Amino acid sequence: MQRRQLLKNSAFAMLSFSMARDLMGAPLSTVDRSSLSNNTGTIILRANENPHGPSPLARVAMQEAVAISNRYQWDMNGLLRERIGALTNHSREHITLGAGSSELLGLVCLWASYQKGHVLASEPTFKLWMPAARKMGLATQLIPLTASKHNDLDRMLASINGDTRLVYLCNPNNPTGTAHDRQTLEKFIAQACKSCIVLVDEAYTDYYDTASLANLINQHPNLIIAKTFSKVYGMAGARVGYLLAQPAMIKTLNELQAWANAGPSAVSMRGALAAMDDHTFVAFCKAENHKAKEIFCNGLAELKIPFIPSVTSFVYFDGAAYSKPVPSFLQSHQILGARSFEENSTWLRLSVGTSAEMKRVVEVLKMGR
Question: Which phi and psi angles does 166 have, rounded to 5°?
Fold first, then answer.
């Protein structure tokens, strides 16, 4: 490997560590997790976590896997990629694993940064990977959302030029919860992939069976899709994510890892395998998310607070119409998570918890109107 590549890999690894430490280092010991579903404990609605997971099957599998954690899990790694491939109609050579999809978004940015240029992304969107991209010399050009809070695909296409190395598209978009239909996405991908890599983040497609672009992988060598077990499978803390792409692209990305596919632990991979078998639990999580979100959105409607219809596990709403600053008022009642993702904006995102938690949120908001 060339000296420049070694330096980049080392810098990227150090940056990833510091980002994880700074962004994820809040002390969880201060939170009484046992009381999250009643009206006296702290309700945490800040990171779009599944309040019900991991599934019963995954919990048992992870507990059992502790006993085999003294061994390297090469076979399990291959098995997990095969199982994922069976879901998406691909071989395991189309898949690479990581410690959550966030690590893999950074890996794609590392690859794109080997030639000077920029990455296109929406504003706002999921940004955890952006500081790493900038540190690697990949400038970020942000494209404002449409008036309906959708990704502005037309403007993104028009912004692609000879310096564009990567287009990042989060669909459904975080933090707005909006998604595009399949036909629109297919047209966008067909055009954008002619010029550069297109990285589609599909972290939230499972909640409403939103159109996945996995079937387009074989048609477009420049298309990469990121998916995760963090959301509907309830394994955010277990850290299991994966990329889908053509085998040549996967091979290139794997060569940038010190140890390809080694991100998830034996415990996490065993949990992911079991979670894929727990169809009853996944169906339950989807149904409960719909129910809890409806409770919250109905409450917002009663309070005449504008919101964006969401196909995810969070809701984007405009706090300008409320009588008090929403984040601090909710926090004063032990409800954490409402925050803005746009500069000088009153729009806020709140994750969807259990039905009981969202009833409590609505109750508190009605108290302060």
Answer: -155, 140
Mean pLDDT of 186-192: 97
Q: Which pLDDT value is given to residue 178?
A: 97
Residue 54 has pLDDT above 90, yes or no: yes
Which runs of E-coded beta strand occur in 90-214? 95-98, 117-123, 138-144, 164-170, 197-201
Going from the N-terminus, what domains does the chain have, and what CATH number goes with each?
3-7+54-277 (3.40.640.10), 31-53+279-367 (3.90.1150.10)
- Give the per-residue pLDDT at 115: 87
Contacts 24+ apart (CB under 8 A), 364-367: 364/329, 364/330, 364/333, 364/335, 365/299, 365/300, 365/303, 365/305, 365/322, 365/326, 365/329, 365/330, 366/299, 366/302, 366/303, 367/333
User: ∠ CA 101-59-74 to the nearest 5 degrees?
Assistant: 55
pLDDT digits over 113-165, tens only?
998 899 999 999 999 999 989 999 999 999 999 999 999 999 999 999 999 99
Helices (H), 25-170: 56-65, 74-88, 101-112, 130-135, 153-159
